[in-house]
């Protein structure tokens, strides 16, 4: 039986839902708050890094991020979250990183 603490730990960070958000890996930082990312649906997108992340959280090549593709221009999107190493371990346990690893290599 799970305790309430287990459920709150699982909800500490946002998870991809496959429709409005996707797991992606940063391939290249392009400057001017832009990055090229490889997404779990097999597409490469040009994504914007919002100012709130640009100032507080450094992005680097190889980081796993959560991306929200734009409705009107699906080949672009916004980076809405960067996962830490602890969060990546939790995603690995849930099996969410398998498809991304298969696509990458």
Helices, strands, pairings?
Blueprint: H1 4-10, E1 22-31, E2 34-39, E3 44-48, H2 51-56, E4 64-69, E5 76-82, H3 85-94, H4 98-104
Parallel strand pairs: 3-5
Antiparallel strand pairs: 1-2, 1-4, 2-3, 4-5
Q: In one word, what is the shape?
A: globular
Main β-sheet, spatial strand arrangement:
1-2-3-5-4
What is the CATH architecture annotation? Beta Barrel
Give the rounded overall mean pLDDT: 85
How do the SSEs run, as a string of H and E? HEEEHEEHH
Question: What's the number of extended β-strand segments?
Answer: 5
Stretches where pLDDT is under 50 for at least 5 consecutive residues are none
Relevant CATH superfamily: Nucleic acid-binding proteins
Summarize the structure.
The protein is an alpha+beta fold and 105 residues long.
Description:
One of its GO terms (molecular function) is RNA binding. Pfam families: eIF-1a. Seems to be required for maximal rate of protein biosynthesis. Enhances ribosome dissociation into subunits and stabilizes the binding of the initiator Met-tRNA(I) to 40 S ribosomal subunits. Residues 25-84 form the S1-like domain. The chain has 105 residues and is α+β, with helices and mostly antiparallel strands. Helices cover 29% and strands 32% of the residues. It has a single domain (17-104), classed as Nucleic acid-binding proteins (OB fold (Dihydrolipoamide Acetyltransferase, E2P)), CATH 2.40.50. A 5-stranded mixed beta barrel has the order 1-2-3-5-4. A hairpin with a 4-residue loop joins strand 2 and strand 3. It is globular. The protein starts with a helix and ends with a helix. The mean pLDDT is 85.
């Amino acid at each position: 039986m799970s305790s309430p603490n287990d459920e709150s730990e699982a909800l500490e960070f946002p998870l991809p839902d496959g429709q409005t958000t996707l797991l992606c890996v940063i391939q290249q930082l392009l400057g001017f708050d832009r990055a090229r990312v490889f997404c779990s649906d097999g597409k490469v997108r040009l994504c914007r890094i919002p100012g709130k992340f640009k100032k507080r959280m450094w992005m680097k090549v190889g980081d796993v991020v959560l991306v929200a593709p734009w409705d009107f221009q699906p080949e672009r999107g916004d980076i809405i979250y960067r996962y830490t190493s602890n969060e990546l371990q939790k995603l690995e346990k849930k099996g969410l990183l398998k498809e991304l690893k298969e696509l990458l290599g």
